[in-house]
C-alpha cells in the first residue's frame, strides 16, 4: 500500500513563483551604542499568489519587516527566503510601493513607469507596449503625458503601483500605500488594488493601520506586537474575491481583530 502524500505535494501553488518563507527572523539597531531589538523570532510562510495584510501598533516593526523582505537592509538574523533563495539585497523580483508615490516630478506618467525597465534588454517597442499595458491595468489611460503635479494623489499612487508591477515581480510589498489619501479615494483604490491582484495574482504583502482595509484585501491578517516586534496572532479571511464591505462575516472578523489589537472596552477599568 502506498504511503499517503504529504500535504505540501498536494498544494497547487507549490511550484509557482513568489513563495516567501521567514524563519526565526531577528533585527537589531544600535542606539547610542546599545542594541535595540525591533524584530524577534518572526516566522511566516506566504504562498505564491497570496495577499497578506500586516497590522499592529506604531513601532512594532511592520515597516522594518518590509524593508528586510525587499532587501533594503541586509543585516539580520534568521532566514528570509524567496523561492528558496536567501534575500541579501534588492532585486527586481521584489517590488515596493511606499506611502508617497515617489514619482520623478520632471517626468511624465509613462516616463516614470518606463524607468523601471531601464536595465531590461528589451526593444523600445516592447518597452512602450509594456508601459501602455500597465497604464491600462491601473486605469490611467489619457494621462500618459501628464506630470505628477497634474495628477490627484490617488492617480499618482496608481502610477506608482504600475511602475512596481511592470517588472513582473514575484512579490509586491505595500507600505501603507493609501494612508495619505482621503477616505473616498482610499476606498476606490482599495477596490482597484483588489481588481489588479485578482487579475495578476502576484504575491502581495501590505502593511496598514486600517483594519477594514486589511480584512477587505487580505487572505490573512497578521497581527504584530511591539517591543520587540513579533507575530501575536493570525486571522484567516475565508471569503472569496471580490468582497463586499458590508458582508456579515467581514464585520465579525473586524470586531475580532479590533479586540485583538486594543482589547475589550468592557474589560477596561472605569475612570475615577
Automatic annotation (TrEMBL):
<keyword id="KW-0813">Transport</keyword>
<dbReference type="InterPro" id="IPR050166">
    <property type="entry name" value="ABC_transporter_ATP-bind"/>
</dbReference>
<dbReference type="InterPro" id="IPR003439">
    <property type="entry name" value="ABC_transporter-like_ATP-bd"/>
</dbReference>
<dbReference type="Pfam" id="PF00005">
    <property type="entry name" value="ABC_tran"/>
</dbReference>
<comment type="similarity">
    <text>Belongs to the ABC transporter superfamily.</text>
</comment>
<keyword id="KW-0067">ATP-binding</keyword>
<keyword id="KW-0547">Nucleotide-binding</keyword>
<dbReference type="InterPro" id="IPR027417">
    <property type="entry name" value="P-loop_NTPase"/>
</dbReference>
<dbReference type="GO" id="GO:0005524">
    <property type="term" value="F:ATP binding"/>
</dbReference>
<dbReference type="InterPro" id="IPR003593">
    <property type="entry name" value="AAA+_ATPase"/>
</dbReference>
<protein>
    <submittedName>
        <fullName>ATP-binding cassette domain-containing protein</fullName>
    </submittedName>
</protein>
<dbReference type="GO" id="GO:0016887">
    <property type="term" value="F:ATP hydrolysis activity"/>
</dbReference>
<dbReference type="InterPro" id="IPR017871">
    <property type="entry name" value="ABC_transporter-like_CS"/>
</dbReference>
